[in-house]
């Protein structure tokens, strides 16, 4: 901040110079004006002396004219080069008053409207935090300085969760959603914070938030993990297994959290067996999708391809789905319970399914240009299925 104030002070000095230099020039002009007035007075006195000498007979008329001419030449020589003073309507006190008010007013306006706090925060964030508490304090100051920054509030909420301040985090995530909109990830974070703020008591509010998040994005990881935790705490072990399996399917193979998540799934399975239940077998189907020659000639590489399984006798909604592009074909994908759009609509819940692959240039899964369908299959089928997109989608 010292560098900033030094630069600001230098700029103020430059601004003051534009006010004070004209004042100093005015004083110089005043001195020139006073000297001119003195020279005129001396000229008038000399002319009067010459007139007295002529009246007394000391000088004749010719000598009087000569004396007057000489006095006039001296006056002209003394006043030569003197600029005509410029009149100012501002008056003398006003420039000095302005010179005083400019820096005072400038500092006052900057402190009110300026961004000195943001400059200081930027300098702080350029240095690594010494602790989690230090980082949280910085984020709190950033949120106070920029209350309309959804990104700053989001990171503050995450910091609160890391410090087990779930009630504060819930309030911050609620503000974040109000600013950034009801995005699935933000709704999931808000639901999680609210759940822990309520001492792990499931509430209609948390249920509504997770439902909304998964409706917008069935693969929203925070909501899936939270629903699994709530189901486990409520001794609904099969639900916990299902939710965590869906979450496990979204994590990259190298993600370190996969080990902990699999441990939770195994523990839920043990609890389920101890209570006399049996773990439902997961249904998994492997499908290789390709294009017919006619479809390949007319499809674009960027066209979307939706691959899904739906119940032969049941709701029309897909039981499991994947999305790729024409450029990726041929491709082999895995459709299973982990890809279920809703917990109650899983492959293992229906005895027969049909595999479908649709090309949609508009990116709409319900309508497109080309389609391929399989014959009805048992959901327990494990053999690799071949599916060719070969028919116009009508």
Tell me roughly what share of residues is in helical segments.
Answer: 55-70%
Per CATH, the class of the domain at 120-275 reads: Mainly Alpha
Return Rg in Å.
44 Å
What is the correct CATH architecture of the domain at 120-275?
A: Alpha Horseshoe
| Secondary structure tally: strands | 9
Beta-strand residue percentage: 5-15%
CATH superfamily of the domain at 120-275: Tetratricopeptide repeat domain
Q: Describe the largest sheet.
A: 6 strands, antiparallel
Show unreliable segments. Answer: 82-91
In terms of quaternary structure, the protein is single chain
Q: Structural class of the helix and strand makeup?
A: alpha+beta
For the residues shown, what is the average pLDDT?
79
- Our count of helices gives 13
CATH topology of the domain at 120-275: Serine Threonine Protein Phosphatase 5, Tetratricopeptide repeat
**Overall 3D shape:** elongated
C-alpha termini separation:
68 Å
Order of secondary-structure elements = HHHHHHHHHHHHEHEEEEEEEE
